[in-house]
Amino acid sequence: MRLSTLLPAATVTLALTALTGCSVDVNTPATGTATSQSPTAGVKDADTDTDSPTPSSPATPSDTKQLRFSGTNVKESADCTGRDVTADIDAGALILEGQCGTITIIGASSAVVVEFAEAIKIDGDANEVTVRTAGSITVKGMTNFVSWVRAADGDQPEVVGEGDYNQVAQVGEAQYEKAASSVK
């Protein structure tokens, strides 16, 4: 097969592979369905984990319980006020605004900026998480970097670390703003 024929086919295959699996799910207890903020995401019924019709309007912070992001190269921004968030992403970028509950980050090589979290839990490798206000921070895995501006209570958040080469450090407001603008 000639290289001129093989190269375009390989490029199309790679592009389709990169787009497969990107999703953001919002579980809505009022309707028992999930809405998607990503055009390629599947919508799942929260009770049966089967496909269900897409609701006519997206969920708002007041009527949802949890945000769930999953996939590769996910780039999203969301208001997580009063909600827990699970981000099972690789090579992604998230901005989470509002007063969030527990933020769980699973995956690798992602940048996450959080305005406020009761708790941050990271179980992955090479993630960079910047949080303005944190209650507690738990880091597992390797080479994760977590920066925080202020603690929810006291001088610093409760920090639990496992794994190798993880760093947790306090930074100034300017560093938080720089991280937020670089993820957008």
TrEMBL record:
InterPro entries: DUF3060. It comes from the Bacteria. Residues 30-73 are annotated as: Disordered. Residues 51-64 have a biased composition (Low complexity). PROSITE patterns: PROKAR_LIPOPROTEIN. Keywords: Signal. This is DUF3060 domain-containing protein. Residues 1-20 form the signal peptide. The keyword Ribosomal protein does not apply. Pfam families: DUF3060. Residues 30-40 have a biased composition (Polar residues).
